[in-house]
Amino acid sequence: MGLNVKVLDRGKNYIKLLFEGVPLPLLNAVRRAALAEVPTMAVDEVIFVDNTSALYDEIIAHRLGMIPLTSDEALGKYKMPEECIGSTEVEGCYAVLTLDVSAKDEVLTVYSRDLTSQDPDVRPVSPDIPIAVLAPGQRLAFEARARLGRGREHIKWSPSTVATVTYLAKVSLNRSRCTLCGKCVEVCPRGVLKLVKDHVEVDEGKCILCRQCVKVCDYDAIDLSWYEDKYILYIESSGALKPERILSEALKIIVNKLQIIHNELNKLGSVGGS
Ligand code: SF4
Ligand code: SF4
Questions:
Q1: Element (H, E) at 63
Q2: Domain definitions of the chain by residue range
Q3: What is the pLDDT of residues 120-158, one digit of tens each?
Q4: Is 222 in the pocket of ligand 2 (CB under 6 A)?
């Protein structure tokens, strides 16, 4: 069977691909690697200099960890987690972000934009993430250290907010039954169906198989099922890595793992043959 890949949709933070002739378990492996194996940068240690806010240090440290940090450049720049966990060495392992904010006469909200990163390649994806609210006279000052990690260690390192594999929907309309009443077009939440002159046009790639169209059709003119060998892989990024990068890193990880298995099997083969 021929292999075919098509981009159905692509945005700044997401990619939707249609695969034909690719086994479902392989796509599922890509999905899992995109969630749990592809490394990104996230804050892992915080040294507090001063915290007179109403929040405990631990709460603020947790919030800092959950702020997505840009990681595209960091992947080639920082050491892998296994080389850094437990190490006191900052160089090559950690990107340092600092903050020192005081509220004077008014209540002040501290945002991710107030963090100063020593590495311009590792900075908050969004400047508008709130960290803490300071009452007049309160101060928050710390040094945060971010390192590479993987989603399987903690979700804060996962580059993907969504990674799914779904069947491609098969939406069949029986033209002899359809009265072109348009009810299905109105009810469809994804704009899959469109009424044109003498028939209903279908964009199957957008269908989420919610069955609303089937329920609303009084003439039993719609049949919903799915294609057996066509799958849609959807990856949404936290912004830490571009969606295409998540995909290519996930594939690299799978290929490396297969290579390790291959090498081990080769060794067994040579042992058996000797
Ligand atoms: S609801 Fe049924 S009859 Fe009406 S346009 Fe859709 S398919 Fe045709
Ligand atoms: S199943 Fe849902 S998404 Fe698909 S065509 Fe029908 S109404 Fe639209």
A1: helix 57-65
A2: 4-36+161-236, 40-157
A3: 999 999 999 999 999 999 999 999 999 999 999 999 999
A4: no
**42, 135 contact by CB (below 8 A):** no
Q: Summarize pLDDT for 192-233 with one digit per residue, the tens.
A: 999 998 899 999 999 999 999 999 999 999 999 999 999 999
Distance CA 13, CA 242 (A): 7
Q: Phi/psi of residue 190, each to 5°?
A: -115, 5
Report CA(113)–ligand 1 centroid distance (Å): 51
Which atom of ligand 2 is found nearest the CA of 202?
Answer: 5
- The residue nearest atom 2 of ligand 2, judged by CA position, is 210
The pTM score is: 0.85
Superfamily the domain 40-157 falls into: DNA-directed RNA polymerase, insert domain (2.170.120.12)
Q: 211: left (phi > 0), else alpha (psi -120 to 50), else beta? A: left
Q: CB–CB of 231/2 below 8 Å?
A: no
